[in-house]
Amino acid sequence: MSVTFYHYPKCGTCRKANKWLEEHNVDVQALHIVEEPPSAATLKDLYEKSGLELKKFFNTSGQKYRELGLKDKLASMSESEMLEVLASDGMLIKRPITTDGQKVTLGFKEEQFEKTWS
């Protein structure tokens, strides 16, 4: 199995997820989420396949999220506006995002990875 893995190398959660994928022999195409952030169209596709709310894709604990005051703005933003904001800066995106083109996981929870990527 091969997955695309959007990550930030300094992120501990991303490192744990990557280690899990390596230990389970999952072929990983790693993309640096800040240097190569997914486009708005890619994010829309990932969001639709994930079954999650779009606001779950925001890195709410990030400094950039707080600087932009997104906590108060998200409720009144359209889907396309949210996607454009996410695509504008990889640091705004919750990470890692792992996908095989059909399934999508956001963040890292071992039990979720077991179920999805084993």
UniProtKB/TrEMBL annotation:
PANTHER family: ARSENATE REDUCTASE, PROTEIN YFFB. This is Arsenate reductase. It is an enzyme of class 1 (oxidoreductase). The keyword Oxidoreductase applies. Keywords: Oxidoreductase. Belongs to the ArsC family. InterPro entries: Arsenate_reductase-like (IPR006660), Thioredoxin-like_sf (IPR036249), Tscrpt_reg_Spx/MgsR (IPR006504). One of its GO terms (molecular function) is arsenate reductase (glutaredoxin) activity. It comes from Alkalicoccobacillus murimartini. Its EC number is 1.20.4.1. It comes from the Bacteria.
